[in-house]
């Protein structure tokens, strides 16, 4: 929303409502919203999801090795892949290369419309390949 407090009384009221909502969240007084300090957020996410089985590689492996004629292994893909019709731009490949050089750590700081989603997918695919497809990914 964009409102100009100097244009009308109605817009001034809407601006005041937005400011009050922001301040309520910022001051941790908004009902149903919990503020978590950024350094604690990583641990919060890990604690929330660490007990859930995300990917059971052992059960998938038995299907990969199965000789069951009713299981079509050709239709299953157990690796992260970029869609075949997507070709990464050179700057995206360079960004992924730099990310790999830095131990698979870093932030893709890219402008709107430059393909952060595909760059991220390419990075995950590269990491997946480097760990023999034994990787679970949570996108938050």
Question: What features would you describe in this structure?
Answer:
- It is a single chain.
- The chain is an all-alpha fold.
- It has 5 helices and no strands.
- It has helices at 9-26, 38-49, 57-64, 90-101, 116-130.
- The relative contact order is 0.09.
- The mean pLDDT is 81.
List the helices and strands and how they pair.
Elements: H1 9-26, H2 38-49, H3 57-64, H4 90-101, H5 116-130
Computed over alpha carbons, the radius of gyration is 23 Å
Strand content: under 5%
The total strand number stands at 0
Number of helices: 5
**Topology as a string of helices (H) and strands (E):** HHHHH
Spatial separation of the terminal alpha carbons: 24 Å
Q: Mean of the pLDDT scores? A: 81
Largest sheet: none
Structure characteristics:
single chain, 140 residues, mainly alpha, 46% helix, 0% strand, elongated
In a few lines, what is going on in this structure?
Helix content is about 45%, strand content about 0%.
């Amino acid at each position: 929303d964009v409102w100009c407090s100097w244009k009308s009384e109605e817009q001034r009221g809407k601006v005041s409502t937005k400011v009050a909502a922001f301040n309520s969240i910022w001051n941790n007084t908004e009902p149903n919203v919990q503020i978590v300090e950024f350094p604690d957020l990583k641990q919060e996410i890990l604690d929330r999801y660490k007990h859930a089985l995300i990917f059971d590689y052992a059960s998938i492996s038995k299907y990969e090795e199965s000789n069951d004629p009713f299981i079509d292994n050709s239709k299953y893909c157990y690796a992260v892949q970029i869609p075949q019709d997507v070709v990464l731009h050179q700057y995206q490949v360079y960004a992924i290369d730099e990310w790999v050089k830095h131990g698979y750590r870093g932030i893709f700081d890219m402008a709107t419309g430059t393909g952060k989603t595909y760059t991220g997918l390419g990075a995950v695919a590269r990491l997946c390949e480097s760990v023999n497809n034994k990787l679970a990914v949570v996108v938050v």
